[in-house]
Amino acid sequence: MAVRIGNLSRFFSTTSSLFHQPFAVTAAAAKAARVDEQIPPSRTLFVSGLSGRTTNQKLREAFANFGDVIHAKVVSDRSSLTTHCKVYGFVRYSNIEDAEKAIKGMDGQFFDGRVIFAEYARSKDTTP
C-alpha cells in the first residue's frame, strides 16, 4: 500500500526554499544586519555576544591590547525564558581614542569561542 504524502513532501524536502538559507550566521552578515545608529563616542564600550565562560579578567585582558582599561564587567541575563542566558559586558577605557581602537580591533572578532560585537555604550538617558 502506497502512502501519499502530498503537500508535506515540500516541507520535508531538502531542496525546499526553506533550506536554502544558511543556518550559521557569519560575523560579516550579523554586522551588516545591525542597524547603524549614531551613538556618540564614549570611553565605555558595550560588548555583546560573549560566551558564558567569559570572565571579567578574560574580558579585561582581551581589551587591554588596545589601551588602558579602567574597568571590565561581564553581565549575565538569567531572567531570559530560554534555556541559555544572554551574556554581554562593558569595558571602560581611560580615553576615547583607546575605545575607538578597541572597537576597530574587536568588533566582529572571535573571542572565547563566540563572535563578539563591540560598540560605544549608550548613556542611560539615551536608551529607548
Strand order of the largest sheet: 2-3-1-6
The span between the termini is 61 Å
Mean pLDDT: 78
In total, the number of strands is 6
How would the global form be characterised?
globular
What would you call the structural class? alpha+beta
Low-pLDDT sequence parts: 16-23
List keywords for this structure.
two-stranded antiparallel sheet, globular, RRM_dom, RNA-binding, four-stranded antiparallel beta sheet, 6 strands, alpha+beta, RBD_domain_sf, 128 residues
Overview of the structural elements:
- This protein has four helices and six strands, in the order ααβαββαβββ.
- By secondary structure, it is α+β, with helices and mostly antiparallel strands.
- It has a four-stranded antiparallel sheet, with helices on one face. A two-stranded antiparallel sheet has the order 4-5.
- β2 and β3 form a beta hairpin.
- It starts with 7 loop residues before the first helix and ends in an 8-residue tail after the last strand.
- It comes from Hibiscus sabdariffa (roselle).
